[in-house]
Amino acid sequence: MEEDIPVVICAAAGRMGAAIAAISSIYSNSDSNILFYIVGLKNSVPHIRKWIENSKLRDIKFRIVEFNPMVLKGKIRPDAGRPELLQPLNFVRFYLPLLIHEHEKVIYLDDDVIVQGDIQELYDTKLAPGHAAAFSDDCDLPSIHEMVRSVGMQNTYMGFLDYRKQTIRDLGISPSTCSFNPGVIVANMTEWKHQRITKQLEKWMQKNVEENLYSSTLAGGVATSPMLIVFHGKYSSITPLWHIRHLGWSPDARYSEQFLHEAKLLHWNGRYKPWDYPSIHTDLWEKWFVPDPSGIFKLTRPNS
């Protein structure tokens, strides 16, 4: 038996169609045995199960994992500015070993991605000894630096951490250090547990509640900052074409069609999501979308 490739993806109530499109794209573009771990909150679990079982995705191999938001109690600072970044499922990636047990290596993907390559390639990413995870560096995007500048993208630690705070300065990390994007992760569960990564991440969440060390009014979400601290200088790299991002940063900035065609994974991180309007390159996303048999989730389009 060829081993399963475990892929973890969250299905949040208001954006379940995103997880469905991501799953559909992965399943369609790979010959490998993929085991999808679909993580949801209690109230959304029946909907996602129904959607899969009553659509063309019924043949996928999947497990539904219920995430208990109580583990986050007291660890998240309320933020009125961007409440969507505080959704409990944003923090699922912190708890991978608690949710997934029998795998040595796991892929975690944000829901706003489309996979155009064979996921086996991503799974085969080499992790250096002692590294619990691989990410994409935010300085590895030469072909789109023009676009990045045009939408004020943050790609350094300065954009995520508040360097006016002594606790942050004490880390000794230069503010101009390149950040990485934790929307695509290849993780080694043994190392993760050995280094107690989850505990370390929780420690920084707690510190942020007490000292307000990072803010989502800056570029990054509250789930990125603790990862930047904990994994600083201790992660391997994902091949650049396996994480082309910032498609959701502006509805006006476009990539060249040829570049997108070569990309293995597209990520609409940012506010402008491809199931909403306005957004860019929606055709590449919609191609993989599977309509909701219950009719609850609908795409927002200019003529709808």
UniProtKB/TrEMBL annotation:
This is Glycosyltransferase 8 domain-containing protein 2. The keyword Transferase applies. One of its GO terms (cellular component) is Golgi apparatus. It comes from Eublepharis macularius (Leopard gecko). It is found in: Membrane. Belongs to the glycosyltransferase 8 family. One of its GO terms (molecular function) is UDP-glycosyltransferase activity. Its main location: membrane. The gene is GLT8D2. Pfam families: Glyco_transf_8 (PF01501).
